[in-house]
Amino acid sequence: MEFTHLSQLTRDPKWYDAVRRIVDVFDQQQNQTQLPGMWPVVVNAQKANLTRENSFGLGAMSDSLYEYFPKMHALLGGLDSVYEKLYRGAMAAAAQHVLWRPMTPNNADILISGDVRMRTPSVSELDPQGQHLVCFAGGMFALGSRLFDIPAHMDIAHKLVDGCTWT
């Protein structure tokens, strides 16, 4: 996002071009990972292979990737549809596999974002933890809800914010 804005400010496309080449790799491999829609926490950037690892989440080491999809869409005025595509695919997978509802004394209707390890292509194992670094996700889902007209994401956003407040 910073490099894109730097290109906007300097009118030098080289910064945006560098970012766009990386985004193209994420786009090409989004549905080839062990959890289609999301990318592993650890990737091999040198070989441009984002598919080998089996650990997924929205927290530490992943947070900025997902957070920037709706923000980049907004920064570019919606002119590049790839950011909406990446957001929709990733958040569909996250909502299904990564978000979880904890047991609370008052049975609060909240969500927390955990980590998932894919054991096989069809078997996932949730690590039901909550990290402070993932508390951005409520705002990200709210922004995605508004930018991409996904009303269900606003409900998720509220539950995630309540989950971070509760924890």
UniProtKB/TrEMBL annotation:
Cofactor(s) demanded: Ca(2+)
Protein name per UniProt: alpha-1,2-Mannosidase
Gene3D superfamilies in alphabetical order: 1.50.10.10
UniProt record similarity statement: Belongs to the glycosyl hydrolase 47 family.
Enzyme Commission (EC) number: 3.2.1.-
Species name: Cryomyces antarcticus
Keywords: Disulfide bond, Glycosidase, Hydrolase
Pathway where this protein functions: Protein modification; protein glycosylation
